[in-house]
Amino acid sequence: MQVRLVRYFLALVKERHFARAADACGVSQPTLSAGINALERQLGKRLVLRDRRFISLTPEGEALLPWARQMIAAQEGMTSALAATHGEVSGQFRLGAIPAALPFAGPIGQALLASRPALALSVRSLTSREIVRALAEYEIDGGITYLDHEPPANVLSVPLYTENYRLLVRAGGQWDGRETVSVAELPELSLCLLHQGMQNRRILDARMAEHGIALHPRITADSYVALFSMVQAGPFATIIPEGYAALFPDLRWARMLPLTESVAASRVGLVVLDRAPLTPLASAAIEAARALS
């Protein structure tokens, strides 16, 4: 079975469109279609239902899918392991990070690339659930996510830091001269927060519930860039991880106030898929994370 044909199959599963899958593989659509046909002949099973376009996988295609992903991951792992015998770990490390942890992508990326100069780094913003799925499907090599709340399964983890909160507000008005804010004040504010599909929001709601407080934001979003923009433009406030306060310490238009009450901190860490043997990429990431932590 040719690895190239399996890559065509996986590209088609991801894109669900023959032309886009061909573009992703750098081949023409007839070449990709012929490759899928060849793979089906080799296996003696029809893998894809199509009628001039992709419709779905057959039951046989669904059964093949996890093994195809493992096959490609194993092939890439073998290539990386062979390169590592000459003292260099090369290739691209694909990192997924939850939005709350994106400020830490810089330190972990710098530590990884400094220790492995032949590596390249690709960073994607993903939810915690997307990170678990992408690791299981070999779409990423590692992730930065929460370790305790809805803990990811089948991973090896290295704690990196604990997350605390700050209130982000526009400078001026009632906030001038204030150094802290009480959690009891939060429900009275015009809040913009991440939506509840984001784990940071679910954790925040749980932490506030411990203080008998429920938050009802007027605006929800899926990125901190949007939340910062809302606070800058209007009479809104938001709650951000301390990592963003450290990333933007000198915003003239903003104030970032710590909470007066103790709010339980959440651990954030690097996770890689728990499999033996570990790929050189995963091993390099764990080593870099341990050096940082």
TrEMBL record:
<feature type="domain" description="HTH lysR-type">
    <location>
        <begin position="1"/>
        <end position="58"/>
    </location>
</feature>
<dbReference type="InterPro" id="IPR036388">
    <property type="entry name" value="WH-like_DNA-bd_sf"/>
</dbReference>
<dbReference type="InterPro" id="IPR050950">
    <property type="entry name" value="HTH-type_LysR_regulators"/>
</dbReference>
<dbReference type="GO" id="GO:0003700">
    <property type="term" value="F:DNA-binding transcription factor activity"/>
</dbReference>
<dbReference type="InterPro" id="IPR000847">
    <property type="entry name" value="LysR_HTH_N"/>
</dbReference>
<dbReference type="GO" id="GO:0003677">
    <property type="term" value="F:DNA binding"/>
</dbReference>
<keyword id="KW-0804">Transcription</keyword>
<dbReference type="GO" id="GO:0005829">
    <property type="term" value="C:cytosol"/>
</dbReference>
<dbReference type="InterPro" id="IPR005119">
    <property type="entry name" value="LysR_subst-bd"/>
</dbReference>
<keyword id="KW-0238">DNA-binding</keyword>
<keyword id="KW-0805">Transcription regulation</keyword>
<comment type="similarity">
    <text>Belongs to the LysR transcriptional regulatory family.</text>
</comment>
<dbReference type="InterPro" id="IPR036390">
    <property type="entry name" value="WH_DNA-bd_sf"/>
</dbReference>
<dbReference type="Pfam" id="PF00126">
    <property type="entry name" value="HTH_1"/>
</dbReference>
<protein>
    <submittedName>
        <fullName>DNA-binding transcriptional LysR family regulator</fullName>
    </submittedName>
</protein>
<dbReference type="Pfam" id="PF03466">
    <property type="entry name" value="LysR_substrate"/>
</dbReference>
